[in-house]
Amino acid sequence: MKSIMAQPILGLDLGSSSVKAVCLRKGWMGLEWAGGYQRDISHPPGPFDWAREAVPGLKEWIAEHQLPMDHVVVSLPAHLISLRTLTLPFNDERKLEKVVPFEIEALLPYPLEEVVVDYQVTDATQGRTNLLAAAVPRGLVKNYLEQLSRAGINPEAVELDGMALTNLVRHVFPDSSALGDPAGGMAALEIGASKTVVCILRHGQTAFVRTILWGGRDVTAALSDACGIPLAEAEEWKRQAGLLDEEISRLHQKGVSQTIRRALEPFISELARTVHVFQANEPPEGRVPLTEFVLYGGGSKLKGLESHLASELGLQAVTRAPKIASGNGAGWDPAFALSLGLALKAARVTGGSRMNFRKGEFAHGREATASSARARYLWIGALLVASVAAADLYTKYTLQMGKYQTLKTQVREQFRTMFPDVKNVVDEVQQAKSTVAEMKKKVALFGTSDWTPLQLMAELTQRMPPSVKIEVQDFVIEPGRLRLEAETDSFESVDKVKSLLGQFGAFRDVTVSDAKVSADQSKVRFRLTMTVASKESDRGNK
Predict the structure, then answer these.
(1) Is 392 inside any structural domain?
(2) Non-local CB neighbours of 285 within 8 Å, separated by 6+ positions
(3) How distant, in Å, are the alpha carbons of 424, 445, 452 from that of 435?
(4) Is the pLDDT of residue 264 over 90?
């Protein structure tokens, strides 16, 4: 049952002299070591050619060991990749993903569309992010994936080799105190046949990555030249004596260790220069001195190398075997460091690398399928939300329509009660407004508790002197006011009209103005204005 449930993971390290693979099983109980495999290959000297041409016999070797191909991680070396450190004034992960490619574009010798860009956050403080940005030519990634495909390999991730060391260190030293002084940094070195990968960590996070094109082959070649022996014999002498040939008198006499020390000098110089460049580029406020280093790779097995580097670099060497590998019964072989770090990437080790050059057009099929599935789920979710919203809207509409119909029925009943003479009811509100307006007109014309125009005209007619003939030219009734223009036979008649009208309690402030004789001297034209008191006020005065 355990083997059925466990997920196989393969880290594949394609070197210049060998291919190494580490297989892990990820199950309910965590990670298990499922095997380490190595195959030496004959290949023209070169630090890394597999991105350009196929590894001979790789497909057959995979089939021979029945290596799992479901979850495979491979790497690209740092010396084929443009690496830059950036500082951005924000911490938003989504913004970083969009901004980093454009920030690094100005630092690259080729257009942005010709590279694949990814990054690793090295330090994040409030409002600021330091990161290591990497750009690899698209043509290199394309060709590399094609070569792997011919061997039946479809990797889910293409890692930066230095970041594989980060995964390993985070697994071996999960607690920050194990990295020594919390204010100090650690250098992880993976010494291979033709290159050395340097990964410098600060507070457990990757801060610097570099590939030095120097490896165990350079020591073997120097020993072969100095002693005049074949490369194979020089390799054997190197393995036996290392830097401690005092234990083997015949090799000591030939000065094997001294030759190896001289061969190491350019390598140590490059390491010292690397440390200096790293510390010189560190911001003053976050500068961290290197205090420790750890050795990995087949070249790290050179006798006395660890203490020699500690003395030359002024750093403390730390050693700890990965628990996952040391429990496999065969012991830990540091030659599998990179391949184990790659496998740990697929296992999602805590605090490990996020870099992956299989993105965009090169995205793994599983990622594309997952993205399609996520998009499909998002559409389904959106449809469900829309359906629920539509159902809610329909329910509210139904309830509102029910209330509307009830109110409409009540309004119609009230309308019929108030206006029983209206037979054809179409729009209760408008018809009620029209009916009320008509009633107001009738009331205004025929009277209510106040004076109507007809009543005022009647009173005005009755109050006129019988002996005086008046010809009204203009008659205006306004609210609370009455005005008329007329002609009569004399000024005396005008005074009579004013006097009689003033005697009526409802007519107040009777005033004559503009009284003048007509052109033919036969008539007097005048204007008469007065205020009209309400009926209630008139009754009170009486």
Answers:
(1) no
(2) none
(3) 13, 16, 20
(4) yes
- Tell me the residue ranges of DSSP E strands in 138-242: 157-160, 185-191, 196-202, 205-212
Tally of CB atoms within 10 A around 200: 26
User: How many Cα atoms within 13 Å fall on the side-chain side of residue 378?
Assistant: 6
Cβ burial 459-495 (10 Å sphere, 16+ → b, else e): bbeebbeeeeebeeeeeebeeeebebbbbbeeeebbe
DSSP label at residue 304: T
What is the side-by-side order of every strand in the sheet holding 507-517? Answer: 471-478, 481-488, 524-532, 507-517
Q: Is residue 373 part of a domain?
A: no
Residues constituting the chain: 542
Please report, as a single letter, which amino acid is at residue 293. Answer: F
Same domain, 197 and 219: yes
Rounded Cα gap, residues 524 and 49, in angstroms: 128
Question: C-alpha distances in angstroms, 73 versus 24, 160, 333?
Answer: 12, 10, 20
Strand partners, 74: 158
Residue 224's Cβ-side half-sphere holds a number of Cα atoms within 13 Å equal to 13
Domain shared by 315 and 338, yes or no: no
Residues 6+ apart with CB under 8 A from 110: 137
Same domain assignment for residues 89 and 133: yes
Lowest average pLDDT, out of 126-140, 417-431, 438-452, goes to 438-452
The values of phi and psi at residue 375, to 5°, are: -65, -40
Sheet with 72-76: strands ordered across: 30-40, 18-27, 7-14, 72-76, 157-160
Residue 13: closest CA among 209, 158, 118, 147:
158
Q: Residue 30 has which token pair?
A: 């965590």
Residue-range definition of the domain harbouring residue 37: 1-173+322-363
What does 430-446 look like in DSSP terms, one character per residue?
Answer: HHHHHHHHHHHHHHHHH
Instruction: Give domain status of residue 414, yes or no.
Output: no
Name the more confident of 479 and 108.
108
| Long-range contacts, stretch 38-44, CB < 8 angstroms, 24+ apart | 38/335, 38/336, 41/17, 43/16, 43/17
3-state DSSP call for residue 343? helix
- Name the DSSP class of 6: P
Same domain, 307 and 456: no
**Backbone phi, then psi, for 395, in 5-degree steps?**
-65, -45
Q: Mean pLDDT highest for which of 1-5, 138-142, 403-407, 464-468?
A: 138-142
Q: 431 is written with which tokens?
A: 């018809």
How many structural domains compose the chain? 3
> The whole model's pTM is what?
0.66
